[in-house]
Each structure stands twice: as C-alpha cells, then as structure tokens.
Amino acid sequence: MAEHRSMQRGALLDAARSLLSEGGTDALTFPALAERTGLARSSVYEYFRSRAAVVEELCEVDFPVWAADVETAMQQVQSPEAKVEAYVRAQLALVGDQRHRAVVAISSSELDAGAREKIRAAHGGLVAMIVEALDALGHSQPRMAAMLLQGIVDAAVRRIELGAAEDPAVITDAAVSLALRGIRG
After folding, report:
1. pLDDT tens string 85-105
2. SS3 label, residue 22
3. Alpha carbon of 56 to those of 37, 62, 95, 175: distances in Å?
4. Rounded distance, CA 109 to CA 96, Å?
C-alpha cells in the first residue's frame, strides 16, 4: 500500500512538472492533475491539500537535484574563475530541463508564505555555493557579489525562457563574459 501511494505521489509530481513547464502556474490545477494521472479529482486531495502543497513538494524534490548538478560542475574545476563559469553555465544548461522550467514557473506564481520561504532557502543554498570562489577572487563582499552574480544568471534564464532571438548558447556565453569580465565584454 505504501509503495502504491508513493508511486501515485510520484505520478502526480511528474504531472505537475509537465503542467508547469507547458502552461505555467495557471495550468497547475487539481482537475488537470487528475486528468493527467487518471485519478479522480478527490483522490488528488488525498495526496496534496492545495496547489501550494504541490509546489512545496516539487521544490523539496527538484531543487536539490538541480543544485547538485551545479555543485558537481563546480567541483570538476579548480580556479575561482572556472568555478564562476561552471556555476553560470551549469544553471543555464538546465533551462530546458523540465525540473528547471517547473521551478521557474513556481517562482513566478502566487504562493503562500511557506512555499515562498522554501524557495528562498533553496536559492540561498545555491548562491552560497559560489561565495568561496568570489572570496578567492578578492571580492570584499563575496555574499553580495554572489547575489549579484545570481541576478545575471536569473536574467539569462528569463531571456532563454522567453525564446529570445539569440541562441541559448550565445546568451550563456554573454552571461559568462559579463560574470567574469563585467560590462567591458
């Protein structure tokens, strides 16, 4: 019985990822989840009390996987500059990934305070990964620099997600250049 519930919960999360990546937060409804999984709408409520609960669980499940991908990329290089580049490139490489698209959709939605706090904490953990490299580069305020660096990444993510005229590789290269060399290019 526990295994069946776990499988159903996983199917609901997979459906939620698909819905979010296809249509944003407006597409994430309990009737849509029920239709995607073949469950009765009332059965969806047995697993999640609200849309926010679905979002919170997606963050708990998906964000650590995403962060681990970024951390792995950073661990494969040595210099602080290479770590910054890996940090930027790894995040932007994940833009097309369904987990990432779901997190982006989630981040822009109307969420309750608990869900927002979980997202903030997850992003804080991601930003914390780069502080040491920025400190090694001589930044007097590496935590602030890390937040600004994440701003560059977030802007590049939005540009890619919007289907900008530029190829995603061009956007990624520009974000890396901006992160490493500033506006001089």
Report:
1. 999 999 999 887 766 666 665
2. helix
3. 19, 10, 20, 29
4. 19
